[in-house]
Amino acid sequence: MDKLRITGGRPLNGEVTISGAKNAALPEICAALLTADPVHLNNVPRLRDVATMRLLLDNMGVQTETHGERGGMSFVAPDSLNPEAPYELVKTMRASVLVLGPLLARFGRAKVSLPGGCAIGSRPVDQHIKGLQAMGAEIVVEHGYMVAQLPQGRSRLKGARIATDMVTVTGTENFLMAAALAEGETVLENAAQEPEIPDLAEMLIGMGAKIEGHGTSRIHIQGVDRLHGCTHQVVADRIEAGTFLCAVAATGGDVVLRHGRADHLDAVIDKLRDAGAEIEVGDGFIRVRASGRLKAQSFRTTEYPGFPTDMQAQFMALNCIATGTSKVTETIFENRFMHVNELVRLGAKIQTDGKVAVIEGIDRLQGATVMATDLRASASLVIAGLVAEGETIVDRIYHLDRGYDQMEAKLRGIGADIERIK
């Protein structure tokens, strides 16, 4: 099992190119199931989750192909494919539930295993099931699978008003894809507004879908008879960009993020500026400069455009070596403080009580062996290792590989002393 060895204490300087967003690429790969025409995606990140999703589509009978230097992928989903997602492939990735909507919309049936993924808390699929049932689907859960089909005599899903009990990103994406081929109009209330949602919607519009309101909490979709192929550029990964911003702010230095979208990171950038980092934004870039210890910042995670839960762990690592005391409140996932015990192994002073963590900033962390528990926890431990005194070993980095495209190579390119070891 691979590990990362990091020797801390080096400021970061230079340029980093931000990859395409995992959380946009995965639903957009699934959107290829909506048509028999070729679908081309560019700027697809090289990640374990992307490889798993590709394998899942391969297993169904989709013809997949990679091409080019900048993450090109092509998909052709024939009418004869097998609309089933087996447990062996789904168990490692919760995003695999995203095949349910498009399979049901185009083929009228689907058998999808209940998903797995990071153990950061309960992310039930009941909202997906209820929404698709509102569109006329018959869905039962049996033997660990969601088995879905259209009622006898119906050839298409029907439009509906769907108001979810909570804001759900993957639920919104599933409903968007399903509604694109449904009969009549679908209205999504309480829709997620994360940048990956309008990016998926723009791809679907490029395939012939009729969608309005994407990027707001109410989305209107007028179903069409069929969709055609398209070429689409995956939006830049705001969480990767935010992770590098925190790494530079923690270690000090001067780094330009190419292809960074500052307009997708307002909450994080505001907190970094309040902490004392200098951040300059322009067309297609973000520049971050920092020196010395920054000021600790309290924050509360919430749905977009608030502070993202996917940046909580990375900013906590920065708070560990900032001046002052901060309070972090996690409102999205109940198990998302699992990185705290590992940060404490590095010398951090953190107390948790339910959804709240109180961090007392200290001068420096000390290198140690730590274990990643989930994707974003991995990134927080890397940031902590970059500022720790001596050597840090981060174990179980397969979590990191699920969501970061060659992170250690990018960090090494801007001056970090980091290497992957077997």
Helices and strands in order:
Layout: E1 3-7, E2 12-17, H1 22-31, E3 39-42, H2 48-60, E4 63-67, E5 72-76, E6 84-85, H3 87-90, H4 100-107, E7 109-113, H5 126-134, E8 138-142, E9 145-149, E10 161-163, H6 169-180, E11 185-189, H7 196-206, E12 210-212, E13 218-222, E14 230-233, H8 238-251, E15 253-258, H9 266-275, E16 278-282, E17 285-290, E18 299-300, H10 312-320, E19 325-329, H11 340-345, E20 349-353, E21 356-360, E22 369-371, H12 375-387, E23 391-395, H13 398-403, H14 407-413, E24 417-421
Parallel strand pairs: 2-15, 3-14, 6-7, 10-11, 18-19, 22-23
Antiparallel strand pairs: 1-23, 1-24, 3-5, 4-5, 7-9, 8-9, 11-13, 12-13, 15-17, 16-17, 19-21, 20-21
Helix pairs in contact: 1-2, 1-7, 4-6, 5-6, 6-7, 8-10, 8-12, 10-12
Describe this structure in words.
The chain is of the alpha/beta class. 31% of the residues lie in helices and 26% in strands. The protein has helices at residues 22-31, 48-60, 87-90, 100-107, 126-134, 169-180, 196-206, 238-251, 266-275, 312-320, 340-345, 375-387, 398-403, 407-413; strands spanning 3-7, 12-17, 39-42, 63-67, 72-76, 84-85, 109-113, 138-142, 145-149, 161-163, 185-189, 210-212, 218-222, 230-233, 253-258, 278-282, 285-290, 299-300, 325-329, 349-353, 356-360, 369-371, 391-395, 417-421. A four-stranded mixed β-sheet has the order 22-23-1-24. Helix 4 packs parallel to helix 6 and helix 5 runs parallel beside helix 6. The longest helix is centred in the middle third of the chain and has 14 residues, at 238-251. It is elongated. The protein starts with a strand and ends with a strand. 51% of the residues are buried. Mean pLDDT is 94; it is low at 117-122.
